[in-house]
Amino acid sequence: MARISALVLAVLAVGALATPAAAQQSLSLNIGYFTVSGEGSRVQGDTIEANLNATGGFALAYHVSDFNNVTFGGEWLFPLGNFLEGGVGVNYYARTVNSFYRDLVNPDGSDITQDIRLRTVPITGTVRFIMTGRRATVQPYIGAGVAIIPWHYSESGNFADPSYNIFQWDYVDSGTAVGPVVFGGLRVAFSRQFALGGEVRFQHATTSLNPNVGFMGDHLDLGGITYQTNFLIRF
After folding, report:
1. In the prediction, which pLDDT does 22 show?
2. Segment 25-42, tens digit of pLDDT
3. Helices vs. strands in the chain: H and E counts, helices first
4. Which residue, 199, 224, 192, is CA-closest to 29?
């Protein structure tokens, strides 16, 4: 998959270099809402879900949907003909979820609490098909591409060991995952320089976690759906 992603990005770069100087390119700025893959549909061994289903009193209390959050970024778009468009973009997402043990408490009766944090910075190379053409006022489109996703995941706070002794610790891992992206949307040009649109984007990616760190699961699901608004500036 890493070789495929490198090839896609190389093709897009060549296409951009081959674009005539007179062709109109765009900068698309976006803000949206990223919804992570739901409980029951996540990759087997996903640690976010494993925390919820731990036995022996070690299950944590939160919802997978608590990781849904705002995302924002930008994408450089360039023509590959009247009906095709290439793009290279980057987005940012981060979320910290507060959790506690469902069945265990401190000696004083207070909750044993943790902060669970996930951060991703998807870097995408995409190609989209614009059904009405790039010069139309109303432009519905569909597209696909590949995402290279640097990620960082941590669980910090107080934990209980198998003997139910409470200790403070930071479990941390990071890396880079690769996966496909598919999307569809609609944009409307309200002048020759500006357009506004909406888009739904599906991202699928998983990664293995370092087994020496000590997470409940051995994988992390980075997939989900983003609902976003796009503001295009043509130049």
Report:
1. 45
2. 999 999 999 999 999 899
3. 2, 11
4. 199
Q: Please, what sign has the CA dihedral across residues 133, 138, 139, 140?
A: negative
Q: What is the mean pLDDT of residues 211-226?
A: 97
Residue 2 pLDDT > 50, yes or no?
A: no
The amino acid that residue 210 corresponds to is N
**Rg from Cα positions in the chain:** 21
Which CATH number applies to 2-17+32-234: 3.40.630.30, 2.40.160.20, 3.40.50.300, 3.40.50.1980? 2.40.160.20
223, amino acid identity: G
Q: pTM for the full model?
A: 0.89
Mean per-residue pLDDT over the chain, rounded: 92
Separation between Cα atoms, residue 235 and residue 223, nearest integer Å: 33
Q: Is the separation of the CB atoms in 229 and 32 below 8 Å?
A: yes
Dihedral sign computed on CA atoms, order 179, 180, 186, 187: positive
65 three-class SS: helix
Place of tokens 């468009």: 85
